[in-house]
From TrEMBL:
Protein localization: Cell membrane
Record key words, sorted: Cell membrane, Membrane, Transmembrane, Transmembrane helix
TM region positions: 46-66, 73-91, 103-124
Name listed for the protein in its UniProt record: DoxX family protein
Main subcellular localisation: membrane
Alphabetized InterPro entries for the sequence: DoxX, DoxX-like_oxidoreductase
Pfam families: DoxX
Length: 127
C-alpha cells in the first residue's frame, strides 16, 4: 500500500504550480539584471554575459510563467544554469553549499524536468 498525500490525478496541477512558482522566482533574476529591480546588480550592460543572462531569464521566465514553448525554453534555461554553475560557482569550491551554487544547480534540474515532462496544467501550450 502506497501512502499518497496528494492523489495522482492532481500531479499535472502541482506540476503547473511548480512551473509558475519557479518562473516567478526566476523572473526576478532577469529584472534585477536588466532593470535594477530588485536592486542586486550594478551597471549590467545588455551586451555582456550578464546582460545576455538577464535577457534569457526575463524572456524565458515570462514564457515559462504562461507555459508557452515550455520544453525548448526550459531546456535552454537548464543549459544556462549549468553554465552559470560550472563557469562561475564551481570555480570557488567543490560543494554547492560552499560555492553558493545551490540555486543554479536546482534551477538547472527543475528546468531539465520541465523540458522532459512538459508544463503541466495552467499552460498555453499544454498538450
Amino acid at each position: 500500500m502506497t501512502l499518497r498525500i496528494i492523489p495522482e490525478r492532481y500531479s499535472p496541477h502541482v506540476q503547473g504550480l511548480l512551473r509558475i512558482a519557479t518562473a516567478l522566482l526566476f523572473l526576478q533574476h532577469g529584472t534585477a539584471k536588466l532593470f535594477g529591480f530588485p536592486h542586486v546588480f550594478d551597471n549590467v550592460r545588455l551586451m555582456s554575459l550578464m546582460g545576455a543572462a538577464g535577457v534569457l531569464e526575463l524572456v524565458g521566465g515570462a514564457l515559462l510563467l504562461v507555459g508557452l514553448f515550455t520544453r525548448p525554453v526550459a531546456f535552454l534555461l537548464s543549459g544556462e544554469m549549468a553554465v552559470a554553475y560550472f563557469f562561475f560557482h564551481a570555480q570557488e569550491a567543490l560543494w554547492p553549499i560552499l560555492n553558493k551554487g545551490e540555486l543554479a544547480a536546482l534551477y538547472c534540474f527543475v528546468f531539465l524536468f520541465f523540458s522532459a515532462a512538459g508544463p503541466g496544467k495552467f499552460a498555453l501550450d499544454r498538450q
